Amino acid sequence: MGEALMKARVGEKIKVRAPRGVKEFEIVEIV
Predict the structure, then answer these.
(1) Residues 1-31: tens digit of each pLDDT
(2) Which of 17, 18, 30, 22 is CA-nearest to residue 8?
(3) What's the pLDDT score for residue 12?
(4) CA 1, 27, 23 angle in degrees (round to 5)?
(5) CB-based contacts of 21: which residues, under 8 Å, 6+ apart?
(6) How far apart, in whole angstroms, are the C-alpha atoms of residue 12 and residue 4?
(7) How many CA atoms lie within 13 A of 23 on its CB side?
(8) Rounded to whole angstroms, how far apart are CA atoms 19 and 31?
(9) How far apart are CA 22 and CA 31, in angstroms?
(10) What is the pTM for the complete model shown?
(11) Which residues of the chain form beta strands (DSSP E)?
(12) How many CB atoms lie within 10 A of CB 7?
């Protein structure tokens, strides 16, 4: 998950492979 977030920008949707399947997140704010 960390690798996917390192390249993410606000407004992007990222997909992360997890043990229980693929999870999708939307970046709303970077602090």
Answers:
(1) 888 888 889 999 999 998 999 999 999 998 8
(2) 30
(3) 94
(4) 45
(5) none
(6) 11
(7) 10
(8) 28
(9) 25
(10) 0.59
(11) 13-18, 21-26
(12) 8
Q: How would you class 19 by CB atoms within 10 Å of its CB: exposed for 0-12, middle for 13-18, buried for 19 or more?
A: exposed
The region that residue 27 occupies, defined by phi over 0 for left and psi between -120 and 50 for alpha, beta otherwise, is beta
- For residue 15, count CB atoms less than 10 angstroms from its CB and return exposed for 0-12, middle for 13-18, buried for 19 or more: exposed
Rg (CA), the chain: 10
Q: Tell me, what amino acid is at 21?
A: G
